[in-house]
């Protein structure tokens, strides 16, 4: 069939001439703007037949409706003219034929993905993991800071606060099916591009929207080509794409008119500010002219300024646990090139270690696909996460600051070339330190702008604070708008990291004294660890921490007496472990015996301190026996509480008590102690025979029996004392344990601590003031 052209009506010609005069153009200049010869333009103004594509482009350049110029009703003109040619055509067959011609081009465009620090090419389907979207954009919601704080039960769920708890997640693919025009917004590295590439591949194979032909447009490339040709025309751009696949422009136009294209425009945020206005205007005009087609446009969430009419906006959700595991499973095959069996082992090891409490903040970062890939890459090297996590976070930040854009050849428009990455880090350190000190995880926009303005003034920089905030938000995604004008750091660990950097910027005694004043506050733990990770020499701060810890209990006579006993008892035990590790062991044993399981303030640290000192402690005969004897005391307290409060699980506590006591008796070698404990055992009624009879005996004779047990433990093992600590002393002892654990963790994490300082700290750890003075004077 031959193509039928269009003619301008007399009224259309008059309107076109008026528009030409208004633009002060000649017919020759109009032809150059359209990118055609002058002959079709002359025929257009003479009312002669012109090809449909030229006709439409001439009208677009003049800002006129081609339907009105042709004398057709706007909503049916092209449809009618197309029916003349295609009235008997099978559009499904046409779509299939064009998609077949386009298949190789789409595969080449979209089936290979770019992964950070990976040399080999990666097939998209080998790594692709489905993403979800949120149907409500967070920063458009109205929520107060108090609303966010209500949801922040603890720091451990900070990464889950990306949205309302009741926000419904939707599979991204489902969102595309539901909305013919979709704006896909997301943070840096959230998986927007790979999703669009996967969408293109699936459509290209006829498995998604089989009655459509996919067009994949990288917004940055379109802008660059348009700028070089001075021709921001999306129709021409797509037409050239189709022509390169042997699809005539007439067919491209017909398919567009009839809404047979799925048009994917990726990375609108990557277009420079000089071209973004022209690009958005062109997309608006194109999507309204060819409104029957399906569109998906992706952009970083904070970069979105223009809202396209008729487009539904959704936000890419963070990866959940299941998505992390799916991605990791694929990663260790496709990227690490492991065999499937080995990959499964690696994946399981990776997930298990990622879920450990000490890796909470690495786990938080892994919710972002880009950072999850990089974390897998780090883990692959040693099957471990690095001990120095400060370096890990520093590298993660560098990815967000510049490396991810760098490897993709994207240059963002900064507001000042003098504002380099180092200065941005200093600015973020200022914001982080001030807000974290005040325990502010969420800040109103005006406060953020005030902090930025103060920093700019201090550093004598004549820059706009609002523009600075937008750069950090858009280009790096480190500060995010949680809801209307309420900001926070994207990840809590970044706030803590930058807080640590701020302390290091001012490495002086007053600075360290101020930091050490926060030692007993658990939320500061990571700040301490990151600080000693980054300091070139940690002697000063570690010694200040040790002095502060010793003074913590220095004025409490009962606790000092307890520490004296702790030293004496530990010194009497025969073991190959460090004396400080044995002291830590007995400190934990006493802590456990002070509480019952239902106590709100129950001690939960386990044997973490001695593990941090020596690794897995090997129980010799003395330690094993005392472990079970202290377990017996702890179980005694639990059972006593259970009976007193008529708890349903009293029988379980009774069995636990019996098991611990029997194990202790088995380990006893000293005849007199063994005889005494066996005699106590004969006094206990059979638990399984009659629990009520056992309860009755316990309530009348249990306390006396317990005092006898303690008497024998004190006499023969020097343990089992009833220290009679009040609640304040119990809390102080718990704090004492926690800050000592922090000190040991800092000691182990420090990049450079002199052997003398290390030895001095270990020798005097968990000692009374008098014993410390003896060690120092020896």
From TrEMBL:
Q: Gene3D superfamilies attached here?
A: P-loop containing nucleotide triphosphate hydrolases
Hey, what's the signal peptide range on this chain? none
**SUPFAM superfamilies under this entry?**
lambda repressor-like DNA-binding domains, P-loop containing nucleoside triphosphate hydrolases
User: Which Pfam families does the entry link to?
Assistant: NACHT, NCH2
The superkingdom listed in its UniProt entry is Bacteria
Residues annotated as coiled-coil are: none
Q: Where is the NACHT domain?
A: 180-300
Q: What is this protein called?
A: NACHT domain-containing NTPase
Species: Nostoc punctiforme FACHB-252
